[in-house]
Amino acid sequence: MPVQALIPDMLPGLSDEILGCMELRQDPLFHKIPKEKIPYYVHESLQAGRLAAAAYKGHGIRAMCREAGLRYEITEASGKFHNVSFRAQIDFSKTPPEIILYASSLKGMQTVCQEILGERSSSGEADLDLLVDIHLAHEFYHWLEYREQSFTNERLEAIEVFKLGPWTKRSSVVQCCEIAAHAFCKELLGLPCLPNLLDYAYLIEEKQLQAEDFMQQITTCKLWI
Ligand SMILES: [Zn+2]
């Protein structure tokens, strides 16, 4: 069943803030973030991604990689490590870092890509090209952070994770980097929504996530944002 039928009227209500909040929820320390600070982390991360993208407006992501000397490789190798499937990774141990895209995992997303971003792509090949661009743009943002040694999470306020007498342990919110990378990608490629929606649509289509659970999570995010 098409994912659109499972989640009716899905796109219009899913603002960047809501999808950004969905990403934030995946932070291992999410439960330590004071609820009133959620909009701060989401908004600031989105802004960081958009601002970085503004400098590249009108540039194609593949040319950007070439000009930056960033190599990327599309491999047929499985992106499965310890039972977790990766679609793209950036290897910072190489100089310059290299982006690796896993073709078989990307191909699995062609259907949802067509359904969610349908009007942009007209063929299976165009879908795959767009999926490659989406993942390149995401990793390009991580590379910008690495190059500047300025990571989105470290630029934002740390949260208190543990307190014992006068001693307080603080930590940054790492998922902020992901929200910013999604916003960078959306802005650069002119997507209608943050690209993490594709991940959810894929999980729903693969029956790894129930549409009702997804809608419930969205409803909760709407209360926080
Ligand atoms: Zn990432």
Question: TL;DR?
Answer:
The protein has one domain (3-224).
Task: Considering the chains and any ligands shown, give keywords for the structure.
12 helices, alpha+beta, three-stranded mixed sheet, single chain, 225 residues, two-stranded antiparallel sheet, binds zinc ion
Structure, explained:
There is one protein chain. The protein is an alpha+beta fold. It has one domain. Helices cover 54% and strands 13% of the residues. It is built from twelve helices and seven strands. The chain has a three-stranded mixed β-sheet with strand order 1-5-4. The radius of gyration is 18 Å and the shape is globular. The model has no long low-confidence stretch (mean pLDDT 91). Zinc ion binds at residues 138, 142, 178, 181.
Task: Give the helix level as a range of percent.
Answer: 40-55%
User: How many DSSP H or I helices?
Assistant: 12
Question: How do the strands line up in the largest sheet?
Answer: 1-5-4
What distance lies between the first and last C-alpha atoms, to the nearest angstrom? 31 Å
Averaged pLDDT: 91
Globally, the shape reads globular
Provide the gyration radius in Å: 18 Å
Please give the number of β-strands.
7
Amount of beta strand: 5-15%
- How many structural domains can be distinguished in the coordinates? 1
Unique ligands: zinc ion
Which class of secondary structure composition applies to the elements?
alpha+beta
Order of helices and strands: HHHHHEEEEEHHHHEEHHH
